[in-house]
Amino acid sequence: MKLPAVALASAIAFTPLVAAAQASAQSSNVPKLGTCITCHGRDGIGTSPVFPNLAGQKSLYMVQQLELFRSGARKSEMMNVVAKSLTDAEIEALAAYYEGLDPGK
Questions:
Q1: Is residue 81 in a domain?
Q2: Residues with Cβ < 8 Å from 1, sequence gap 6 or more?
Q3: Is 86 domain-assigned?
Q4: d(CA 41, CA 4)
Q5: Domain span at residue 76?
Q6: Is residue 88 one of the residues assigned to a domain?
Q7: How far apart, in Å, are the Cα atoms of 54 and each of 5, 41, 73?
Q8: Which residue range or ranges hold the Cytochrome c domain (predicted)?
């Protein structure tokens, strides 16, 4: 499934923020968090209406979905690229991080 034009425009607009987000996330022990917080936020709340909230999401579900994105079985232009670079350990760490966040924020 291709991203709607507004989602793609949002992603492009956030691209310069990736470096800042990664620098912000370096204080965390979660690898690759900086890439995720650009769209999904440090608190797990999407930074735009087109990016889903991840706070409180069950880690098993997130692991399964990230593995599907990584393999290409689940289609998303953005997430296929992001997930392709993730190791199993990084996927587990990211899933545990977001599961541990309060979705009520």
A1: yes
A2: 75, 76
A3: yes
A4: 21
A5: 5-99
A6: yes
A7: 22, 9, 20
A8: 19-102
Q: Which two tokens stand for residue 100?
A: 């541990």
- Read off the CATH number of the domain in which 51 is found: 1.10.760.10
Residue 93 lies in a domain: yes
pTM above 0.90, yes or no: no
| Alpha carbon distances (Å) from 102 to 43, 50, 66, 77, 81 | 8, 20, 21, 28, 27
Task: Answer whether 50's CB lies under 8 Å from 38's CB.
Answer: no
What letter represents residue 53's amino acid? N
Residue 17: exposed, middle, or buried by beta-carbon count in 10 A (0-12, 13-18, 19+)?
A: middle
Count of structural domains within the chain: 1
One-letter amino acid at 73 equals A
